[in-house]
Amino acid sequence: MSPLAVMGVAAGVMFGVGAIAALVRIIRGPTTLDRALATDVLLAIAMCGLAAEMAINRHTDTLVVLLVLALFAIVGSIAIARFIGKEDRS
């Protein structure tokens, strides 16, 4: 097994553990902001996983997917912030 493959497996395990922790926080999070932050973390982990896969396999085929995930993360964060801001005023 090459060193690059070993690092890829190690990164995959770490991304998996982080994703499981984020899913637990999404399910058990006491507040809406905890769930929103965990969702952002899960999207960031997915983007890092895609970027690592692109680096390991030396291609840019999934770059569009990476950009769409980043767009969803930004739009989702802004929407939740606006929703929470309106909720706090009332």
Automatic annotation (TrEMBL):
It is found in: Cell membrane. GO terms for molecular function: sodium:proton antiporter activity. Its main location: membrane. It comes from the Bacteria. It is a multi-pass membrane protein. The chain crosses the membrane at residues 6-24, 36-56, 62-84. GO terms for cellular component: plasma membrane. Keywords: Cell membrane, Membrane, Transmembrane, Transmembrane helix, Transport. Belongs to the CPA3 antiporters (TC 2.A.63) subunit F family. PANTHER family: NA(+)/H(+) ANTIPORTER SUBUNIT F1, NA(+)_H(+) ANTIPORTER SUBUNIT F. This is Sodium:proton antiporter. It comes from Agromyces binzhouensis. The lineage of its organism: Bacteria, Bacillati, Actinomycetota, Actinomycetes, Micrococcales.
